[in-house]
Amino acid sequence: MVYQVKLPAFEGPLDLLLHLIRVNEVDIYNIPIAQITEEYFQYLSLLQELDLEVAGEFLVMAATLVYIKSRMLLPAEPSATGEPVEEDPRTPLVDMLLEYQRFRASAEALAGREDQQRQFFFRSTPLEVPADGGTLEVSLFDLLAAFQGVLARAADQPVLDFVTRPVTTGERMVAILDRVATQAAVSFESLFPPAADRWVVVVTFLALLELLRQGSVRVQQQVDFGDIVIARAVA
Amino acid sequence: MSQDDLAILEALLFASPDPLSIEQLHTVLGDVERDRIVENLNLLRETYEKNGSGLTIVQIAGGFRMSTRPDLHPWLSRLASTRPTRLSRPALETLSIIAYRQPITKAEMEAIRGVLVDGVLKTLMERDLIRVLGRKREVGRPLLYGSTRKFLEYFGFQDITELPSPQEIEALTPLRQDAGETVKSEGENS
Amino acid sequence: MSQDDLAILEALLFASPDPLSIEQLHTVLGDVERDRIVENLNLLRETYEKNGSGLTIVQIAGGFRMSTRPDLHPWLSRLASTRPTRLSRPALETLSIIAYRQPITKAEMEAIRGVLVDGVLKTLMERDLIRVLGRKREVGRPLLYGSTRKFLEYFGFQDITELPSPQEIEALTPLRQDAGETVKSEGENS
Asked: Tell me, what CATH number does A208's domain have?
């Protein structure tokens, strides 16, 4: 037998904090941090008593509240220059709450417009006349959904394992050619994606060597230890 | 001739599943001037109104589309059983963040909402209200999101500048005393 | 009252994606008699005719639907030809395979999709979304395909490494119901 208990559902820790600030009628610019922290923890323990999972972000906020509370009890730390630091430890949280509140209000405004717009009914049927030519209309979502379909169907065939397949020299060659096709000169560093792992770096380098061998690109360095610049080979 | 111009305009608006811009109408109608098209659109709307028609012409997302008269919606709700559901509050919050702050990354949205937004992003993508705009030039190159034309249509905006300004939003929020003021470091009575 | 009955009827016919039968209309309209509904449908059609409207009411397969006047068909074709076209599912799938696996041969694409891709490749080439990169050094020297600059620009990416990773795709797309379905040999002409 499962008992259902109606609890106010909060979208997240900020939502819960705004609720506590409202019901306690306290000033958001001067939050009584000890009181609010206590009520915040009461809500979390209520969730636990009901065996409901407490999402990670609620716990992060709990830690933040405790930290702010402890900071409020301490005398202001002197800064590196010896000047006392005046900043209220609550400020970052207050800023977050205010910003979140603004977006919550704009979400409400959007909901109002949604209601209003739902009074208009349009025809949803596509044009019966088949279209050919014209401009293209494809969203990235369409493309990705299609690819996901491919991946899902290919899942049983290990030979088509896209997920673990590393980037290839061929791909990197194409990418480099794309770059030099539109930019007169591309810096060597920019060929390597910032988050690239070692494999991608090696493969990219091999791709560059292959392009040089083919004579598809040129490499220049104006001064010793200067930037290495890749450019398209003059035809 | 003008009579038939109106009929053609009417047929085009009826058949188009999306709002038609003056430019599109001009392309299709060929020799009809843009000003004349605007005049005819107004004439059509006025004729509908005068005749007590159940239809109307609305201006939306930079174009015009034919719609049912809003006051008749109770009747239409009875007919339409498969309308898309209203957006949830988390979806609306995330959408408003994207609309105001675009281009914006997922991490930035999560920083503002204080919760993960993965599920909501899927829904918004699927409903074609948001799209990927590219990648941010920073470590990890996260995807950047923005709003779509469908977003404008869905909420009845002409363009993105019609979104209420931050000041207008501010006026809607209950806790608005001295929003710009800096927080004073008062003796804590916590 | 009759005036508004007509407007409601008009709005229902406009918004319904399928023809509406007298029974359906009677259910929605509640207290309006079936005979009266038929009368009103005729009245509506006559009014359209008298006013030279671009719309008309046609009776088909056990129901009534609103439609454009048949003689205006050429204008609607013009509208259709100016509208953006969407890529078919086979075209999208093939495009995504090329984008992620380039450089890739036709035979390799067909191995993945399980169907011939000739028609789709032609469409994608015509749309300047893919291009020939060269020939593979293997027996028969098959052509290698890859994506174009235009493809990347269209989606707002700098180079192909910026395309969403499989993990990001996962995060953006709700798994389709039909994802596990086997591919039917669809008409492969985009």
From this structure: 1.10.10.580
Put simply, whether B179 touches A (Cβ < 8 Å) is yes
Same domain assignment for residues A132 and A24: no
pLDDT in tens, A78-101: 666 666 566 888 999 999 999 999
C158 inside 8 A of chain B by CB: yes
Local confidence band at C22 (pLDDT 50, 70, 90 cut-offs): very high
> Does one domain contain both A18 and A42?
yes
**Which three-class secondary structure state does DSSP give residue A103?**
helix
Q: Is C185 on the interface with B (CB under 8 A)?
A: no
B10 touches C: beta carbon within 8 Å: yes
A133 and A59 both lie in a single domain: no
Asked if residue A82 is part of any domain, the answer here is no
User: Which domains are assigned to chain C?
Assistant: 3-71 (1.10.10.10), 89-172 (1.10.10.10)
Nearest by CB to residue C55, choosing from B14, B29, B69, is B14
Query: Would you say residue A171 lies in a domain?
Result: yes
Which residue, B37, B76, B185, is CA-closest to C20?
B76
Using one digit for the tens of pLDDT, what is the confidence trace for B133-165? 988 988 888 999 999 999 999 999 998 888 887
Partners of chain B (3+ Cβ pairs below 8 A): A, C
Tell me: do A14 and A99 sit in the same domain.
yes
Q: Which chain B residues are Cβ-neighbours of C50 within 8 angstroms?
A: none
Which of B92, B114, B140 is nearest residue A100 as measured by Cβ atoms? Answer: B114
- Candidates C132, C150, C149; CA nearest to C141 is C132
| Pair A136, A192 in one domain | yes
For residues A69 and A132, state if they share a domain.
no
Q: Give the chains touching C; criterion: ≥3 Cβ pairs < 8 Å.
A: A, B
Chain B touched by C43 (CB under 8 Å) = no
For residue C64, give the H/E element and its range.
strand C63-68
Choose the weakest-confidence range: A35-39, B103-107, B159-163, C170-174: C170-174
Query: What is the number of CB-based contacts under 8 A between chain B and chain C?
Result: 119
Q: A10 is in which domain, residue-wise? A: 1-76+87-121
Instruction: Give counts: helices (H), strands (E), chain C.
Output: 9, 5
* CA distances for C19 relative to A49, C15, C22, C47, C53, angstroms: 55, 10, 10, 20, 20
> And the tokens for A149?
């379909």
Contacts of B131 in chain A (CB under 8 A): 139-141
Report cis status (omega within 30 of 0) of the bond before B142.
Answer: no
> What ipTM was predicted for this assembly?
0.74
* pTM as predicted: 0.71
Instruction: Measure in Å the smallest separation between the Cα of B110 and chain C Cα atoms.
Output: 15
User: Is A141 touching B (CB cutoff 8 A)?
Assistant: yes
Crossing angle of the two packed helices A91-117 and B89-101, in degrees rounded to 10: 110
User: Looking at the structure, do residues A197 and A96 belong to the same domain, yes or no?
Assistant: no
Helix (H, G, I), strand (E, B) or coil at B26: helix
Residue B109 has pLDDT above 90, yes or no: yes
CB contact (8 A) between residue C85 and residue A121? no
Asked which of A62, A97, A121 is the last residue of a domain, the reply is A121
**Whether residue C33 has pLDDT greater than 70:** yes
